Amino acid sequence: MTDIQHKSSAAGSAPGNTPVLIGCGQLTDRRPPQEAASPLELMSEAARRAAADAGPGDALLQCLDRVVAIGMTVDSPETGDLGIQGYRNVPLSLCRALGIAPAQTLYGTTGGNTPQMLVNRHAEQIARGACSAVLLAGAEALKAMIGRLLQGLDIDAWQLDAGEDPARDGPERLPANAHEVAHGLQLPASVYPLFENALRGKYGLDLEQHRRRMGELFHPFTRVAAANPLAWFPVERSAAELAEPGDKNRYVGFPYTKYLNAIIEVNMGAAVIMTSLEKARELGVPEERMVYLHGCGDANELWHLSERVDYSSSPALRAAGREALAMAGKTIADMDFLDLYSCFPCAVQIACDELGIAWNDPRGLTLTGGLPYFGGPGNNYVLHAIAHMMARLREHPGKFGLLNANGWFLTKHSVGIYSTAPPAHPWQRRDPAQYQGEILEQAHPAFTETPEGPATVETYTVLNGHQGPERGIVIGRLADGTRFIAETPDDSATLQAMMARDMLGAAGIASSREGKNLFVPDA
């Protein structure tokens, strides 16, 4: 019996309400700004490709009962008012571009976890019979939009009014509180370096050892990207080239150089179509196109950065991974393929630690090439990762793959486990609310917005501009263990010293004046 015959026979015993991914489509548009597609054009083309990939094509699009668009970067709450009138209703505009009228349209919330979280959520909806055919689609064209604005060209294709505001797929929540924002901790490039420096302390590495480790971690990612025709930067770079600062690779948030940061200015679109097994068969989707979600998990950390248990672990990712593997009845050793969310090195390292994966695992840690090299299209990267996972699993029937996704600052976590083999049991996930409580109840340090007195550094970063270091940020502890956030003096000598020597555990004096805190390191 062939693999496909065996799979078809096994699938025959799966319940008709089993959720299944049947189609995926993606594209990368490298044309110059004056020719490049708009986000809506990218999204609609990805959707058409997903429908064709499943087999039925337009007939599949016409029978969709739910369309969900991934939230665009320009609509993220931290973006603010750009003075640009964008799409008023992205999912409805997408439906009109496709010539379809599903019963429901939804617009996703902000977060890199969103695509996997939506797959998990809508798989459950399909299993319950609340819907039978769902399109998830997203796109970013920031590179083209910024290029057009710089060239004085119009962005009319980014400005459609569908006549009403979209229904949101859940509440939107700001990533940081006012105190954190006041101290510069509201953007990923400013926050993730804090986790990275904390990890260096956890691993017991000095600055040079850690720099080499980051380069060695991400070098294989560049090799995968170099072989991926969809990658935004298909260039293999050495470990030293990635991690050593230089004229073309300046520091951004110490210890990260430019080549270690996710790149959001891309033009990319992706889409995935999910149905019930019964609907897929009704549409004539070939069994060999079907990919099943065997396990999933979703969990959030203590929301605000200042509340975290520490900055070198992720209890929420640990819980989400545990739940996904338990649901699938698998262990991490059973996974044949991995794609770990890779916005910055610390995200990969913490995922490895929490999921039980070696950072140099021979299976490889990415299918795409990762967000700094494949491209980081806003909230939509993981939809590309899912599409890559589907393609790889179709090439290797019966194998299993795991991917994870995180949103904001290692805040929101989603995990999915996939295979072409149908689940052995009726599809049912554990309600995430049942294990979210264990995370919220974890002990964490007390926090003050008004620190005074002797203190030490828990973790830190130095934010750099094109001309060099500009701002030092410290998360510290007072003598009694109370945590605080502060900036450091911004003179060149202090900032350069913070990048030249290990500041973890460094002593100094903390003070508070008019809502802003200052930490002055001892000489």
What does this structure look like?
The protein is of the alpha+beta class. It folds into three domains: 3-176 and 264-440, Thiolase/Chalcone synthase (Peroxisomal Thiolase, Chain A, domain 1, 3-Layer(aba) Sandwich), CATH 3.40.47.10; 187-260, no CATH class; 453-521, OB fold (Dihydrolipoamide Acetyltransferase, E2P), CATH 2.40.50. It has helices at residues 3-11, 39-54, 58-62, 90-98, 114-128, 142-150, 178-182, 188-203, 207-226, 239-243, 277-283, 315-328, 345-355, 381-395, 433-440, 492-500, and strands at 19-28, 66-69, 104-107, 133-141, 267-276, 292-300, 337-339, 400-407, 412-419, 453-465, 468-478, 483-487, 507-513, 516-521. The strands form three sheets. A five-stranded mixed β-sheet has the order 1-5-4-2-3, sandwiched between helices. Helix 2 (39-54) crosses helix 4 (90-98) and helix 8 (188-203) packs across helix 13. The longest helix has 20 residues, at 207-226. The radius of gyration is 23 Å and the shape is globular. The model is unreliable at 1-9 (pLDDT under 50).
Throw out a few tags for this protein.
OB fold (Dihydrolipoamide Acetyltransferase, E2P), 16 helices, alpha+beta, Peroxisomal Thiolase, Chain A, domain 1, 523 residues
Please give a quick description of this structure.
This protein is an alpha+beta fold. The chain has 16 helices and 14 strands. The N terminus is likely disordered.
The CATH architecture of the largest domain would be 3-Layer(aba) Sandwich
Which ranges are low-confidence, i.e. pLDDT below 50, for 5 or more consecutive residues? Answer: 1-9
Helix content, binned percent: 25-40%
Number of helices: 16
